[in-house]
Amino acid sequence: MIIMHITFEPLAESHFPLLLKWLTTPHVKAWWDKDIHWTADLIQEKYNSYVKGFKLQERVPKKIDAYIICADTTPVGYIYIMPIIFQEVCH
Questions:
Q1: CA triplet 63, 67, 72: central angle to 5 degrees?
Q2: Is 20 part of a structural domain of the chain?
Q3: Is residue 91 part of a domain?
Q4: Which of 1, 38, 53, 73 has the fewest beta carbons under 10 Å from its own?
Q5: Tell me, what's the pLDDT at 57?
Q6: Structural domain tally of the chain?
Q7: Structural domain containing residue 61
Q8: CA 72 → CA 8, 35, 82, distances in Å?
Q9: How many CA atoms lie within 13 A of 84 on its CB side?
Q10: Each residue's pLDDT tens digit, 8-34
Q11: Which residues on neighbouring strands pair with residue 11, listed in sequence order?
Q12: pLDDT tens string 37-91
């Protein structure tokens, strides 16, 4: 039996080249941000605040926890956690 350990590493600036590689890979590009031409500068601009624990939405900081998913020690994916706020709309 093969046992694999799945871990979540907090996103760090050292992961940015990996994000750039993933986001420009054709099979990822087909599904994720098709219209964006990712560069190292754009990765830095978008994900720098994620490393610090927030995401700017409409210029308002929102809490975010971003991670690189690892299978054993190999990075295999990216995931983030954000609080969801439900607002009840009354008519």
A1: 160
A2: yes
A3: no
A4: 1
A5: 84
A6: 1
A7: 6-81
A8: 10, 33, 25
A9: 4
A10: 999 999 999 999 999 999 999 888 888
A11: none
A12: 999 999 999 999 999 999 988 888 999 999 999 999 999 999 999 987 665 555 5
* Residue 59 token pair: 């210029």
Answer whether residue 87 is part of any domain: no
User: What is the rounded radius of gyration, in angstroms, for the C-alpha atoms of the chain?
Assistant: 16
Where are the extended beta strands (E) located within 1-91?
6-10, 54-57, 60-63, 65-71, 74-81
Closest to 38 measured CA to CA, from 57, 18, 53, 54 = 18
pTM, to two decimals:
0.84
Q: Does a structural domain hold residue 32?
A: yes
Residue 87: strand, helix, or coil: coil
